[in-house]
Amino acid sequence: MNQFWENEFVQTAGYYSVVILCMIVFLAIFELVTKYRNWEEIKNGNVAVAMATGGKIFGIANIFRHSILHNDTLLTMISWGVFGFFLLLTGYFIFEFLTPKFKIDEEIENNNIAVGFISMVISIGLSYIIGAGLSQINGL
Questions:
Q1: Distance between CA atoms of residues 49 and 77, nearest Å
Q2: Contacts of 35 (CB under 8 A, 6+ apart)
């Protein structure tokens, strides 16, 4: 049975499945903390929401990329991925705090593409910083 679990195809499918489940949970959490409904807004053609959501998806995937590369067990990979996600979520709240002249959620909901773009870039940028930190924490 050990040969089955050590098979690279099985491991890749396992990582893929776990990350997809985590992505669904994390996007649901983002849905709870934003004032707009991501998928409804995207369905209605809101490009700002699509960009912000795309940045979150990329950010989460990039964090898990680093977590997969630098951890040898599935449980450890999940743990560091969850930690990275909460850092990304914290970045979202810091972005909101640093823009007191307008509300990020309202601007994105109103299809302000400039704010959606900045939100996307912040999520992607922070995911690289978080990923680099995860690499250092694990000694690689």
A1: 29
A2: 105, 106, 109
In this structure, the number of other CB atoms found within 10 A of the CB of residue 92 comes to 22
Of 111, 113, 67, nearest to 88 by C-alpha is 67
Q: What share of the chain is helix, strand, coil (3-state, %, to 5)?
A: 80, 0, 20
DSSP string across 53-120: HHHHHHHHHHHHHHHHHT-SSHHHHHHHHHHHHHHHHHHHHHHHHT-TTS-HHHHHHTT-HHHHHHHH
Tokens 């996007």, located at residue = 27
pLDDT tens across 89-120, in order?
Answer: 999 999 988 888 889 999 999 999 999 999 99
| Enclosing domain of residue 26 | 2-137
Amino acid at 7: N
Structural domains in the chain (count): 1
Between helices 74-97 and 8-33, what is the axis angle to 10°?
Answer: 30
